[in-house]
UniProtKB/TrEMBL annotation:
It comes from Aegilops tauschii subsp. strangulata (Goatgrass). GO terms for molecular function: calcium ion binding. InterPro entries: EF-hand-dom_pair, EF_hand_dom. SMART domains: EFh (SM00054). Pfam families: EF-hand_7 (PF13499). This is EF-hand domain-containing protein.
Length: 106
């Protein structure tokens, strides 16, 4: 993620992790992580790819897709939805969304 950043961009990147960073700044940063191609939209494929990077071999592809499908459905979206930043904010801020995921470890 930090490849090719100049110093100013790198400092901006680090500032997102500061306690002084607003929730909006943090959500925008997370959105950029998921917006793999940088086009301002996040697809189900993008979500799966990032979750794959985060979970490694601890989850199967089927489990990843099930978790993401459930999260999207709880927030009123489908796996066919293409998410804008505004949609992403809606999902993260959705009052019914449970941010708890159990991953079985064999």
């Amino acid at each position: 993620m930090v490849d090719g950043l100049n110093f100013k961009e790198f400092v901006s990147f680090l500032s997102t992790f500061s306690a002084r960073a607003s929730l909006q700044q943090k959500i925008e940063f997370i959105f950029k992580v998921y917006d793999i191609d940088g086009k301002g939209k996040v697809s189900f494929k993008d979500l799966v790819e990032v979750l794959r990077d985060l979970t490694g071999s601890s989850m199967s592809e089927k489990q990843r897709e099930q978790v993401l499908t459930k999260v999207l459905e709880e927030a009123g979206y489908t796996r066919d939805s293409t998410l804008s930043l505004e949609d992403f904010v809606t999902i993260i801020g959705h009052p019914g969304l449970k941010m708890e995921v159990e991953v079985p470890i064999d």
